[in-house]
Design goal:
The protein contains three helices and four strands. By secondary structure, it is an alpha+beta fold. The protein has one domain: Enhancer of rudimentary (ERH-like fold). Keywords: Cell cycle, Pyrimidine biosynthesis.
């Protein structure tokens, strides 16, 4: 488990910047999914169930002005930066594991 900080800037203005921290990379990737789900709920307030596929999630990530992660590296006691493509790869792996787990 590596402490992970998610940095998000949805719009062009610097005031739209925000961050969240998580106890692990997987929790952070789940957090990115939740951000998208909240976005969908705001856009579709009268829809009781929201569904989406991974390509829609990735399109949403691509529309963000910036999104990146800082992941704690115990060996060097520092945080390493990771970009959008890395985030999308980690989300893909996480969702694929969830889809193929016996409890899914």
């Amino acid at each position: 488990m590596s402490h992970t900080i998610l940095l998000v800037q949805p719009g062009t203005r610097p005031e739209t910047r925000t961050y969240c921290d998580y106890e692990s990379v997987n929790e952070c990737m789940e957090g990115v999914c939740k951000i998208y789900e909240e976005h969908l709920k705001r856009r579709n307030p009268n829809t009781p169930t929201i569904t989406y596929d991974i390509s829609q999630l990735f399109d949403f990530i691509d529309t963000l002005m910036d999104i990146s992660c800082m992941v704690y590296q115990k060996s060097t006691n520092t945080y390493a930066p990771y970009n959008k493509d890395w985030i999308k790869e980690k989300i893909y792996v996480l969702l694929r594991q969830a889809a193929f787990s016996p409890n899914a």
